[in-house]
Amino acid sequence: MSVNAVEQAVAAPRRASLQLVHDVQQLLYREARLLDEQRYDDWFELMEDDFRLWIPVPQSRYRRDGQGIYEPRRMAHFDDSLSELKLRASRWKETTAWSEDPPTRHVHYVTNIEVEPAEAAAEWLVHSVVISLRNRNEDEENWLGGRREDVIRETAAGLKLAGRKVFVTQSVLMAKNFNTFL
Questions:
Q1: Which residue(s) pair with 169 in the sheet?
Q2: How far apart (Å, rounded) are the C-alpha atoms in residues 135 and 38?
Q3: Strand locations in the chain (E)
């Protein structure tokens, strides 16, 4: 290999292969199905131990304010570690979980999946759009949508979710509860 070819190889940005993009898509589609089926223990198997979920509350701001809609220092719907997510999911199995009796029916849609390199060599930043359709009883229906930013890590066991940010579009949630995972 010539010196020029080596310099070009070193300078070339890391890119996701078609196989990696396919594997990431399959991971996110599997995750959506597990959530729809309320198979939370299987869902947690897709995550790394340091997984964190952050869903900030959007704030309607004028552009001239110079502040963003989603700010880390403001309130969040969720800012949960993996152990906190497991605790939340375990509560839904209890007979005292009146908000889940009868259980909510979910359909998660995941689309617009893009994969790009993250800072760490074994990690990928994955952008997607998610919509959660929730139905309860006979006539309660709620839609919740947003943009997601996932960190997906390559491990010896395969691809794992290492972190997630969800930027919901609704500033006011019209549902009676927020008992869903995005």
A1: none
A2: 14
A3: 52-56, 76-81, 105-117, 123-136, 140-155, 158-168
Q: 32 with 145: CB under 8 angstroms?
A: no
Tens digit of pLDDT for each residue in 2-61?
656 555 556 678 999 999 999 999 999 999 999 999 999 999 999 999 999 999 988 766
Q: Which two tokens stand for residue 37?
A: 């089926």
How far apart are alpha carbons 25 and 98 in whole angstroms?
A: 35
- The domains found in the chain, sorted by start residue, are 14-95+104-168 (3.10.450.50)
Q: Quote the pTM value.
A: 0.85
Distance in angstroms (rounded) separating the CA atoms of residues 167 and 119 = 21
67, 178 Cβ separation under 8 angstroms:
no
Identity at 106, one-letter amino acid code? H
* Alpha helices, H only, 14-167: 18-36, 40-44, 82-91
DSSP codes of every residue in 50-61: T-EEEEEPP---
4: left (phi over 0), alpha (psi -120 to 50) or beta: alpha
